[in-house]
Amino acid sequence: MDSAAETAGGYQPWSEVTPDAARRLLIAAVEAFAERGYHATTTRDIAGRAGMSPAALYIHYKTKEELLHRISRIGHDKALEILTTAADAPGGAAERLDAAVRSFVRWHAAHHTTARVVQYELDALAPEHRSEIVALRRQSDAAVRRILADGVEAGEFDVPDVPGTTLAVLSLCIDVARWFSVSGPRTPDEVGALYADLVLRMVGARPHEVQPGT
Amino acid sequence: MDSAAETAGGYQPWSEVTPDAARRLLIAAVEAFAERGYHATTTRDIAGRAGMSPAALYIHYKTKEELLHRISRIGHDKALEILTTAADAPGGAAERLDAAVRSFVRWHAAHHTTARVVQYELDALAPEHRSEIVALRRQSDAAVRRILADGVEAGEFDVPDVPGTTLAVLSLCIDVARWFSVSGPRTPDEVGALYADLVLRMVGARPHEVQPGT
């Protein structure tokens, strides 16, 4: 169990979770929720995957929902950090949007198992946790909307519907977690580059190379 | 139970499922899978939602997986029909792509509960059913790829990566099922119109309205 947990730990953003037993349980919860869904997973399943007893789990997490909330909070904090870093960077709007899409896509591809749990199990959160996560999602949305609005104001972008386009850009990036496979033909970096180009086209920041009538 | 099932029946593409009891069970299964996930749902839960006994369920479906397969098959048949109808239509590539995106998005918005089950529970299908569904998905993918390739050949589109852009277009439309809410600010038609415009920009079919350097 240790080596599997450590491999997953190296691949996933759980380094801030301490002690080691709490981190192993979180990684086990991500795997179980992704495989069978939150409602079909028991705390006993999670403890078993982590090579621990149910009693040992309760030292770190009082409920299954506490595990989901912790996973969701870490995932949403990371998403917000990625998007605000890009939004706050110096440079033109096109450059910032390119960076936002690349890094957001890379995260959803590289951490697709975690991202699926974070994106698909929102309804299973307790009401107060759900409100907290919805607030983080609004801030992520606002970071992207700000880049688009800056681009429109600077004459870099042509975006008739800024809120709708913001939604579409985030949705396109998030859905990478659904279809991405490590055995597929593209690396996270390659998907990031492709998507940055497509999004810059969506906002009218790419020269139009086809002449009308040709 | 009858009135709720009938409302859902009017809203969802189950009219081909007969007799009435089999249709009510399918609608109940969609609701249960969407709410709690496939693995957390029992055939007893589904029968209960449909106001029927477990024994009555077994007359129509031998296993829970048979219900999921039926739902997945109907959903994927509909997706393929929408996309091939658009791909086979007369008119230019831009017009056909516009029609494909509008109708595919409308379906994912209007039938978002069904679409979530269809998209998120593929791993729960039995291997032979999964292969059948993957083949349908490849055909859907091919229909969109054909429109893009036609557009490139006709000089209507500028698409450096046709398979990657096909994947992104389908992904953008499919993810509507995740975020769409009937209480949200946009109707399925409005999301369809917005997305058709964004996708035409992605393929370089929209005139570029921002002049470089302005």
TrEMBL record, chains A, B:
The keyword DNA-binding belongs to this UniProt entry's keyword annotation: yes
InterPro entries hit by this protein: Homeodomain-like_sf, HTH-type_TetR-like_transc_reg, HTH_TetR, KstR2_TetR_C, Tet_transcr_reg_TetR-rel_C_sf
Record GO terms (molecular function): DNA-binding transcription factor activity; transcription cis-regulatory region binding
Domain HTH tetR-type: 19-79
The entry's DNA-binding region: 42-61
Pfam families: TetR_C_24 (PF17932), TetR_N (PF00440)
Residue ranges the record marks as coiled coil: none
This protein's UniProt keywords: DNA-binding
Statement: the UniProt record of this protein carries the keyword DNA-binding: yes
Entry-linked SUPFAM superfamilies: Homeodomain-like, Tetracyclin repressor-like, C-terminal domain
PANTHER family assigned: HTH-TYPE TRANSCRIPTIONAL REGULATOR RUTR, HTH-TYPE TRANSCRIPTIONAL REPRESSOR BDCR
Protein name: TetR family transcriptional regulator
Organism expressing this protein natively: Streptomyces subrutilus
Lineage, highest ranks first: Bacteria, Bacillati, Actinomycetota, Actinomycetes, Kitasatosporales
